[in-house]
Amino acid sequence: MSLRRILYIAIVVVCICFYVMYKDYLSFLTLVFVLALPVCLFILLVLVKRGVRVDLASAFTSVNKGEEVAIELRFDNRWILPISRVEADLTCFNHFSGQQEKKTFVLAVSARNLTVVRAAFFSEYCGNLFVRLDKVRFYDYGGLFCLGTKPRKELQIAVMPKIYPLEADLKPDMGSETDSDLYSSRKSGDDVSEVFDIRSYHAGDKLRSIHWKLSSKRDDLMVKEFSLPLSTKIVIVLDMAVDSVKDVSDFSQVNQRVEVLLETAISISYALISQKIQHVFEWYHWEEQFFHQVDIQSPEDLFETMRSILRMRAYQTDACLQCHHALQHQKTAAHTYYITACLNDEMFGHLPSKRRSQATSVLYVSKEQMSAQTEGYLTRLEEEHYQVVRMCASNFEEVLSTVDLGGGVHG
Amino acid sequence: MANRQGSGVVFSDVVQIKTKHNREVPQIAEHIILVLLGVLGVAFSFISFFSFAYSGVVVTLGAVFFSIVFVMIFHYLPSVKLPLGILAGCYAVLCILFISPLRKGFYFIANGVISGINQEMQYNIGTYDIPVDLQNLAGFYTTLFFIFALFLIAGLVSFFVVQRTSFIALLLVTAPLVIVGLLFGIVPNYFAFIMLVACWTGTFAMRLSDLRHVARTVKAAHKSDFAGVEGKRDQYILSNSRFKEETKTVAGLILIVFTVAIFFLTIVLVPKSNYQRPQAVDDLRTMLRTMQFDFGEGDNLRAMGGINGGKLGQTDELKFNGVPVMEVEMDHFEPMFLRAYVGAEYTGKSWEDLPQDIFRPYQHLFAELIRENVSPLFITPIYAQLYHDAKLNDTYQFAVYKNHIQLQSLLPSSEFVFSPYGAMLLPQDADGRGVGYEKDLYIRPSGNTVPVRYDYHVCTMNSIQADIVAATCEGMSSQWEQYSQWEQQYSAYVHEVYTRLPKGLNEIKALSDELYREAGTPSNYIEVVRQYLKENTTYTLKPGKLPRGKDFVDYFLTENKQGYCTHYASAAAVLLRAQGIPARYVEGYVITQSDQPAVEGGVITLKDTNSHAWVEVYDEHYGWRALEMTPGYSSSQIYLPGITDKNTGGGTGSTVTPPSEVDNPGSTRPTPDDSHEQTEQEGIQWEPEEEKASGFSFLQAMTAPLVAVFLVLFAFAAVLLRRVVILKRREQTFVQARQQGNVEPVYNYLMEVFTFLHKPLQPGMTYLAYAKSVEEEFLSIRRNEFVELMEIVLKGSFSPHPVTRGEMDALLSFTEKQVAVQYSMLTPYDKFLFRFVRCLI
What we know:
Chain A is an alpha/beta fold. In chain A, 31% of the residues lie in helices and 35% in strands.
């Protein structure tokens, strides 16, 4: 458009010169024409623009990573004239990775007609995608003017992380331990500190389990069922912290590592839930500054957890102290999976005691080239009998499918 | 194929556009309208610039016919090569058959163009001599030539509008034919120009609305797109083929309608008769022209004695070449002035029109005069008519002398209409259209630029007779009061306006005071000024140009003291104004006794040597009368209405006094060269004259650069045309190759590209070894990428198994990508060779 405006200005200058230097009436006519034409075109553009309704639609609300998403830009032109050029700016913002992609569509809009632009995209990274129709620009027939409008149309599409199958058998030992703070959701037990359910009295129930106060209120015998503490409390601690991001060009590598972290955690969780192993998923929401702990008892729980994680920004640039503290307090867990991409000296102060070191797996997602310092940390962990799993973006699928992550669980 | 931007979101390059309804659009109608507007516009714009004898009906019909034929061919035929070839063949055969009349037509047209340029630019370019007996057939030959030219123009315009929708190319084809006239100061026919502008704007809108990538992508669905680097352009696939035409067609039509409507409304709201240029614009124009002159732009100008429109001092030498400019017929011969341009405002460098702000308070007076069919130029006839109507002629023993004068201009497109003094009514041009007054200065033509014939009925009286008539008519009728009132108002206006001088000029004012003291009275002062000029200056045609920053009259009277009629007329007008005597500078033609035809009522042919400049002064009851101030042009040479000074008594009456001799022998008006005259009479030759007038040197000097420019343009056009043909052919070949699984054209193309990149297939080298060496040479090719594609080529060439569509696509995609990448890495020179010489992209 700039070129056309420059061209128009040049034409105006030529016509002004023509007008000044030629006394003939034609020079006046030409100048008036050159000056009046853009005014007419602009008025027409204003009228045409008012007659167009723009919409954004998609049949998808959730897709898997790498799956194609089709979207439609609809231009309903109720005017009798078409629009020769329309540009629509679309922005795809991935809230999880914090990155966005802009795309401009160029089209013509037919008169008294519905013009639909169908485009498709896929996301290489998971996250909540906000597809926004930022701006629509309408051009006049001379290409001199452009009127923009902000339709404020937005779609939200969740791109779910990929879940990789784990070959290892993670079947837990269901023995009871008193110091567990995780109870079975299916069976009642004898731990009086936690009530599992309250129900009517059945013959054979122990007297000490009768809830007398409630029975007197209801005028019926009610029985308390106590919870069954689980000795195999399994905890997945997802530490989303990655090394400091130096520059923008590093984003893709950071995203890949964050995704490996997330997909590893999700895959382990899914493997556990597939084997009906109830567990706890913990992560730190650094935007909310809140440490989340969610009991995962079903795939639906895992799905909701995923959506919650995707709602936050993917990473922080400093080591996550909250995650380290969480590790320190995993005294009752039969096994802890600590999934991280950030190791430092401070972490060693928060790791579970050496007594429980064998019940802790540290899954470290490194860069393609691991630094000597990181290697030193991992070696130290191994010396302290922690199970250390090294993985990076290029090999984590293979590692997940081959490595034995269940040892600690059995133990 | 996808756009990978690193943000994780990858958009597909394929974008589908579909519409709910699939509508028919009148595209053929628009194409015909556009092409007709273009062809007719450019043809009649060009024709209107110059003086051509031609048949307008035949030219119009030819333009319409050719336009429709070409539009039909380009619009409907899937392949235009054969019909265009047939047409070109027929055209060539007809050209050969009609070569002789076409040559004659060319000579006529060339003469028209050259004459026009000579007239407007005051050049002296020689023309072709054409036998007199062929002059009557000028219309036939010219029309025939136009028809042949229109065939080419219609073909090109149709091609660029219908086939290519290329605004720039259309402009390149049509604009030069309009610019050629404008550059020489000639204005085209309004209607034709508007048609051409409508064609331009319509095509421009179509071009803008033609989303090129959309159009290209439709093709891309069938072939690989070589226009850009992979991933930089989306492929838009349209669900219906008419969709992309709809916006183009409607946008084009809207722009055509807008163009015509804007011009129409402007003409209706500000008609030409009411159009007044702002004074500021005129001042700006004067300033620019002065600057242009000051920067030496006019150094090489050589006036040929035509009408300059008040330009002063721009020529160092006045030249005449004897070009016939006008034919005059009059019932009774009498020497006279034919006035054209009248300068109202002296600027020191030129005479200009009247400033609008000065004129505005009196505008109503002129409007009233025109409404009452009274010429604001000449007051005399209104009393004369009154006198004549009262039949008082016998009482005062003299008759109001009337003459019927017809002027036939031989030159096209003049800014001014020549008129004799005392003309009673505004003339009409040959087509019956009215001409207009430019204030009270001169008459301007209607805009018809072909030579026209004007009829005048002239009332000739001297100023004494005018006084008698005015006094006699006083109170005799109701009209007298009206006339008297007009005259009083006009007199006040004249004394206010035509005594203005620029600031400064102190020496001139001192001189005029001195001369006035010597004269004593205004009427004597005129004679004293004339005498002063005669005695203190020298007439010459080579006064030299005006030095930068000097006042024209000041320089003439105080320093240079030599000049020709323009100098004398300007100096006299300024000296008269300095003493408050209303005076104006006039340019036009003078008819002297020597121009009298052998037979009474015969045709007088005026040449450029008849051009002249003189002074007008205002007399009460009479109006403007001409004053001859140039030495060598005795007042007695010419019958000058009102020239006799009232104070000195006597008058020339209707008696014409022949010039006895020129006052100043050294200032004799130049006459056409004898040998030249002879040549004109004898000249029946069909080759351009080798030595005709002084224009030969100009023509000779301009020939080489013009030929060079033409050759360069021709070469450029040829290169572009060749490129278009090669790319088009390759495009078609690739589409066929893709459909048939034929790898050979793509392979040949790749080899051509790599050969250009200095990596040819060496003799004895196997194909796969060559592919590996290419991969090593060019980093943009991935390892084994070209080897795999070479295997596809080998499979397509030697294997009985056909190449699959996917393999062809891969090959085409690789070719497209590599060509674009390699092109982007070339040097500018190599890029030029790659694109325009080898046409590889």
